[in-house]
Write a structure and sequence with these properties.
Glyco_trans_1; glycosyltransferase activity; 13 strands; 361 residues; single chain; alpha/beta; Rossmann fold; 6-stranded parallel sheet; Glycosyltransferase group 1; transmembrane helix; 12 helices; 7-stranded parallel sheet
């Protein structure tokens, strides 16, 4: 049995990384090569533990709820704690790590004590928008890229293409199907994610676009964050009657009745899981083509991709939907358009990527 140890720092419990890890563990034992076994190490703890429920083999080291105290504990304890934890896993085949400082420490320990396991960097962010110090970047045997854009960023930073495997991120197959609105109904769009006027999620762009869409439509916003700031901007555009805040929902997809499209206008992403999650329940998507992620997911069968400076095209697609001239309603085709990302296929890709990296090393 080949043991794969996955290391993460403190996680909120609400982010994309947690979803990816949860999905991976959820189906790994049933669809992946039985020669592999996964074990999770969450060093620093978490805020919400729902994502851990399906993960049986796990070790959680909590550093408390205070961010300040966590940082102090990381500085003083991490260089000793990580080697201690991995030293006990004598049969480890690979160590997959999501944080640069953590994979740096584990790589040095491996070299000093001549361990044979792989150190694989599994970074879940754009390297352009959240860069990694060169000291840490080079200290890994291999790299899992969660999008083709991030794979390109690694190459541009001098990482050999032989060390990079583009594995994307997994999404669970979903029996739920969310239909379109009726022809004479109000068109319904949704946004799911952290609520940010500017910054990464860039809801200002989305609100500006919607201000130019005429007819009978509404936008439902699911998530938490800068609610008051976004509400104020919506009010300044006279859109308060059309845009509603629905709060954070643990499983938003089962709560939806009829939806015409999910909208995303992020300035950057690593790999936007929300697009795949929407598509997995048959909802088409319209997204800005930020540097990494959307281009790997969106195709003519599941939605529309818009260059980030082309607001007029975004408005065009929305207006066509509102006017009933565009209606992507072949639900099975939409769902099947992301077959490569479903977790049963993903688990096999994950194992194959580890095996091929081992041969390279």
């Amino acid at each position: 049995m080949k043991k794969v140890c996955i290391f993460t720092p403190h996680l909120s419990g609400f982010g994309g990384t947690e979803t990816v890890i949860s999905n991976l563990f959820s189906e790994f034992d049933t669809v992946a090569d039985s020669n592999y076994h996964l074990k999770l190490f969450c060093v620093g703890g978490y805020e919400n533990g729902e994502w851990l429920k399906g993960i049986k083999d796990r070790k959680i080291i909590s550093f408390g709820k205070s961010m300040f105290l966590r940082k102090i504990k990381y500085v003083f304890f991490l260089p000793f704690l990580l080697p201690f934890l991995i030293a006990k896993e004598k049969d480890a085949f690979a160590v997959v790590v999501t944080h640069p400082i953590m994979w740096y420490i584990l790589f040095l320990f491996k070299k000093i004590f001549r361990r044979k396991y792989l150190i694989v960097a599994w970074y879940h962010f754009s390297l352009k928008n959240k860069p990694i110090k060169r000291t840490y970047l080079n200290k890994a045997d291999g790299y899992f890229a969660i999008s083709s854009g991030i794979a390109g960023q690694y190459r541009n930073l001098g990482i050999s293409k032989e060390k990079i495997r583009t594995i994307y991120n997994p999404v669970l197959r979903n029996s739920v199907t969310v239909p379109r609105t009726f022809s004479d109904d109000k068109r319904r769009f949704i946004y799911v994610g952290r609520v940010m006027l500017d910054g990464q999620k860039n809801l200002r762009y989305l609100i500006d676009v919607l201000a130019n869409v005429h007819g009978n439509w509404e936008l439902l916003i699911y998530g938490h964050g800068e609610i008051s700031k976004v509400k104020a901007y919506i009010q300044s555009k006279n859109l308060s009657a059309k845009i509603k805040f629905m709060g954070f929902k643990k499983d938003v997809w089962t709560s939806l009745s009829r939806v015409d499209a999910l909208l995303l206008t992020s300035k950057f992403e690593g790999f936007p899981m929300v697009l795949n999650e929407a598509i997995s329940v048959g909802i088409p998507v319209i997204s800005v083509n930020c540097e990494t992620g959307p281009e790997d997911i969106i195709n003519r069968n599941n939605g529309f991709l818009v260059e980030k400076n082309d607001q007029s095209l975004f408005i065009y697609y929305l207006q066509k939907m509102v006017d009933g001239q565009i209606q992507l309603s072949d639900y099975l085709q939409i769902k099947n358009s992301i077959n490569q990302f479903y977790s049963d296929n993903y688990c096999l890709n994950f194992c194959n990527a580890l095996a091929s990296l081992k041969k390279e090393n």
